[in-house]
Specification:
single chain; about 475 residues; alpha+beta; 13 helices; 16 strands; 5-stranded antiparallel beta sheet; 2 domains; 4-stranded mixed beta sheet
Length: about 475
């Protein structure tokens, strides 16, 4: 069986003036990722990453989020294996994919439940780095099957979507509805995050089908994104509050919506899926950037600070700061052109993760973090959350470091690297495998504003100046170059 071997020199090398502590954390994150790999001696299983080795379970949304980390592993380790394991286990008759499976039995850990459907997003983002069109073609049936299962089995009378309970949404103890409802019917609640995640899936399926040369499917899924976003804005949006809420979904669609009056991180997904636009986005930002609501000392709290259920130590999803919701929101801010806000939030979040890491009592990466202190979060009963959680908690030390702080994004579809230059310092990434080539891109403001580029094959480099707001396009041939900006 294939074995993953940690080798520091084989990974992309981040360059960042003045933050050796962040770079040390970056490499420690990779060490934990390799440490947490499971090798499963069963037919059809590939080695998989996990946040909790040895518990005989594979989780769906954890697996999806980890791919955004291993996209930057240069092929030395991949969470796409986790998705292949899930595709192997899915019910092919109707597309159903459980929120989790027991590895030993290959049966759903909690039969009937689903999890945030993020596979299409994960696969599209992995393609943007790898350029592996063949993989998109091979996984499309599973992605479409899961999308259609949710359409056929998780919609209420308004046409919007329900999870079985907050646990299925991944936000286990958030004040969004009852714990495990015996009928597994969501207790009549429409969950805003599931609607957004379905819209996001449609958006990514449209892009995948376009790349694969299926224009009618691409057009269908694009129209699906628009349809779902329109419903989100019709039912989940409160103009009075300027926020998106879950609502009780068993009422007649013609009657007034009855909201569940807790502002939670479930609404963060509206920024990513395209629902929150224009004045709705501006109203949302008033809440998201408010230190008395979501922009706590460690951003972003997953339950608004003005909620009576809010726990300043975290209390798991009663305010704890979690990587998946932070990542979704920060990605959404970037895609809406709010890169300055996204960068500040990424810096504040990564700084907190790093401060905890360098505190002798807590020197590892944790499942989630306290919103009001540089500490791990508490779980619901007051104990510390799980340590060594790489896992999705590696998103800040790896993915956000590269994308939001160093400022690099990759687009294999157009063979383009996007580089947002900082106002000061030397930043960049060396030895990055992208779209079949090996690439280094380093900018030094003290080096007469030059970008050093080394690439094994031609690439387009699109450079954005943070100060002047200028945009430069360079067609870079194979070799070493010094570009003036």
């Amino acid at each position: 069986m294939e074995k993953y071997i940690y080798c520091k020199e084989a990974l992309p090398k981040p360059i960042l003036d003045g933050h050796q502590d962040w770079i040390d954390l970056y490499y420690r994150t990779w060490e934990l990722a390799f440490q947490n790999v499971e090798y499963i001696d069963q037919q059809g299983w590939k080695p998989q990453m996990t946040c909790m080795p040895g518990v005989n379970t594979i989780w769906q949304w954890d697996s999806c989020l980890m791919t955004f980390i291993t996209n930057y592993a240069n092929g030395t380790i991949t969470a796409l294996n986790n998705l292949d394991n899930l595709y192997h286990l899915r019910r092919k008759s109707d597309g159903y994919m459980s929120m989790a499976y027991r590895i030993s039995t290959e049966q759903p850990a909690w039969p009937g439940r689903i999890n945030p459907p993020l596979m299409a997003w994960a696969e599209w983002d992995a393609y943007q780095v790898s350029g592996d069109r063949d993989r998109l073609k091979s996984v499309l049936p599973a992605l479409e099957g899961n999308y259609q299962f949710i359409e056929n089995n998780r919609r209420g009378v308004t046409g919007l979507y329900w999870f079985e309970d907050p646990g299925s949404s991944g936000m286990d103890n958030a004040p969004r509805g009852p714990y495990a409802w015996p009928a597994l019917d969501g207790a009549g609640i429409c969950y805003v995050d599931l609607a957004c995640q379905q819209a996001l899936s449609a958006k990514c399926l449209s892009k995948i089908c376009e790349v694969l040369g299926e224009p009618s499917k691409a057009e269908f899924y694009l129209s699906e994104q628009g349809r779902i976003n329109a419903l989100i804005n019709q039912y989940h949006w409160s103009e009075q509050a300027g926020f998106y809420f879950d609502f009780f979904g068993r009422t007649d669609p013609a009657t007034k919506v009855k909201y569940i009056n807790s502002k939670t991180a479930a609404a963060f997904w509206t920024v990513l899926c395209g629902a929150a636009q224009g004045h709705r986005l501006e109203r949302m930002l008033e809440h998201l950037l408010n230190p008395n609501e979501f922009y706590t000392k460690v951003p972003f709290a997953t339950l608004s600070k003005d909620d009576p259920n809010y726990d300043p130590t975290g209390g798991y999803w009663l305010g704890g700061v979690w990587a998946p919701t932070n990542f979704a929101l920060i990605r959404g801010l970037v895609e809406n052109g709010r890169t300055d806000i996204a960068k500040k939030a990424a810096v504040d979040y990564l700084d907190a993760v790093c401060r905890v890491f360098h505190t002798p009592e807590y020197t590892t990466i944790w499942e989630c973090y306290s919103p009001e202190a540089y500490l791990p979060a508490t779980a619901e009963a007051g104990e510390w959350v799980r340590p060594d959680f790489v896992g999705w908690s590696g998103l800040a030390p790896v993915t956000m470091l590269i994308e939001n702080i160093i400022g690099l994004r990759f687009d294999a579809r157009h063979n383009t690297v996007h580089f947002r230059l900082p106002s000061e310092g030397t930043v960049g990434l060396e030895n990055m495998k992208f779209n079949g080539r090996t690439l280094s891109v380093v900018f030094g403001r003290r080096e007469a504003h030059h970008i050093r580029v080394k690439t094994t094959e031609s690439v387009t480099l699109k450079v954005y100046e943070e100060i002047s707001m200028q945009v430069h396009n360079f067609e870079v041939a194979a070799g070493e170059h010094l570009l003036r900006v």
